[in-house]
């Protein structure tokens, strides 16, 4: 298949518009129209991973972390980023990253941790807002079905487990075509009164271009009266971290043992025990210090994440236990997650998980 068939599917699950402003998810190296036959999945994209892709005949690497985070001005093998990119280009291997956009969806990176810990009733820890927009348009009664269906076909009106959602109210519109107009209804110079329906539909912000194109191409009027509003609603499906409940409460020491076993950890850094049972657990893959206050407000007994600095551990302030399990360790199951996501759609596509250990941190015991 072509690269864009694979990436379009991945971006239907984790749209690029959901990534953080500092991120660089998407197709980093390659042509979207190129054919691919075998993919290698990894957490990181390094020279060793590219070597593995070459040896195994893979023509695309799908990684969680982008190899390029910021602009490169030179490609002269001066660092591992440049060397990795050059090697991929020389060997015609495409590089694709699905990073914070996969972090920010239900069923993404943090959800995978929650699944491993068997957390019950999982929910987004810090939901995002401003991701939805509402289109309001006025349509002559005779064309309502056509316009509404065109909007649905473009992706409008999908709310949770429901689609083709709209609100419709009857009224009438007035207008007078001026010289130069070519009205679908009425005559130049004469005021018209037309029975119209006001259609309101909600849609994801990233679909706006497709929605507007569908509207203008299906609406009979030469000038289409409509307006678009950005909604402040928070999303139940997009945001950072996951909060959930353990099937059975356990002591703090038992929870750390449980955490170590379930996530296959070498070491856990944690704050002082508070002498109470662990029942409610917040998790965030990768560097999750920015969600600590959300974890506290959500009533978490423990917050499982990574990349905590020494002084940041004090921020627990006796309200919960912080458990830092390591960046790689918190995201290692993302490879398994991506494999399952792709396999579900493309059952016959050759797909491999890397055998290269890309964790730059080693432990001595």
Write the layout of secondary structure elements.
Blueprint: H1 3-13, E1 26-29, E2 38-42, H2 47-56, E3 60-63, H3 80-90, E4 94-97, H4 100-103, H5 109-116, E5 120-129, E6 132-140, H6 144-153, E7 167-175, E8 192-204, H7 208-218, E9 226-230, E10 234-250, H8 252-262, E11 269-270, E12 278-287, H9 292-297, E13 302-306, E14 321-324, H10 327-331, H11 334-345, E15 350-353
Parallel strand pairs: 2-3, 2-15, 3-4, 12-13, 13-14
Antiparallel strand pairs: 1-4, 5-10, 6-8, 6-9, 7-8, 10-12, 11-14
Helix pairs in contact: 2-3, 6-7
Model description:
The protein is α/β, with parallel strands linked by helices and 365 residues long. The protein folds into three domains: 3-99 and 333-353, 3-Layer(aba) Sandwich (Udp-n-acetylmuramoylalanyl-d-glutamate--2,6- Diaminopimelate Ligase, Chain: A, domain 1), CATH 3.40.1390; 109-123 and 240-330, Udp-n-acetylmuramoylalanyl-d-glutamate--2,6- Diaminopimelate Ligase, Chain: A, domain 1, CATH 3.40.1390; 131-231, Alpha-Beta Plaits. Helices cover 27% and strands 29% of the residues. Strand 12 (278-287), helix 9 and strand 13 form a beta-alpha-beta unit. The longest helix has 12 residues, at 334-345. The model has no long low-confidence stretch (mean pLDDT 95). Belongs to the GTP cyclohydrolase I type 2/NIF3 family. InterPro entries: DUF34/NIF3, DUF34/NIF3_bac, DUF34/NIF3_sf, N-reg_PII/ATP_PRibTrfase_C.
């Amino acid at each position: 298949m072509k690269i864009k068939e694979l990436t379009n599917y991945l971006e239907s699950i984790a749209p690029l518009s959901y990534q953080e402003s500092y991120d660089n998810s998407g197709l980093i190296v390659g042509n979207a129209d190129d054919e691919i036959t075998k993919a290698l999945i990894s957490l990181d994209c390094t020279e060793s991973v590219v070597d593995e892709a070459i040896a195994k005949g893979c023509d695309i690497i799908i990684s969680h972390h982008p190899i390029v985070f910021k602009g490169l001005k030179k490609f002269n093998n001066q660092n591992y980023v440049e060397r990795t990119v050059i090697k991929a280009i020389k060997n015609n291997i495409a590089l694709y990253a699905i990073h914070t956009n996969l972090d920010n969806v239900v069923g993404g990176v943090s959800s995978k941790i929650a699944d491993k810990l068997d957390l019950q009733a999982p929910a987004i820890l810090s939901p995002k807002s401003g991701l939805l927009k509402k289109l309001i348009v006025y349509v002559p009664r005779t064309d309502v079905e056509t316009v509404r269906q065109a909007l649905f076909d473009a992706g409008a009106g999908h709310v949770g487990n429901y689609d083709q959602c709209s609100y419709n109210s009857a009224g009438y519109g007035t207008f007078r075509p001026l010289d130069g107009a070519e009205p679908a209804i009425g005559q130049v110079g004469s005021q018209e009164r037309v029975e119209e329906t006001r259609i309101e539909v909600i849609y994801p912000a990233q679909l706006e271009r497709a929605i507007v194109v569908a509207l203008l191409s299906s609406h009979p009027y030469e000038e289409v009266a409509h307006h678009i509003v950005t909604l402040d609603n928070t999303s139940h499906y997009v945001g950072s971290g996951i909060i959930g409940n353990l099937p059975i409460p356990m002591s703090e020491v038992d929870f750390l043992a449980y955490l170590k076993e379930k996530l296959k950890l070498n070491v856990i850094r944690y704050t002082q025990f508070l002498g109470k049972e662990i029942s409610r657990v917040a998790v965030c893959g990768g560097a999750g210090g920015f969600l600590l206050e959300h974890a506290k407000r959500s009533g978490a007994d423990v917050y499982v994440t990574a990349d905590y600095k020494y002084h940041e551990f004090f921020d627990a302030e006796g309200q919960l236990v912080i458990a830092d399990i390591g960046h790689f360790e918190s995201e290692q199951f993302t490879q398994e997650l991506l494999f399952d996501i792709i396999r579900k759609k493309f059952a016959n596509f050759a797909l491999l998980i890397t055998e290269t250990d890309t964790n730059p941190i080693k432990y001595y015991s």
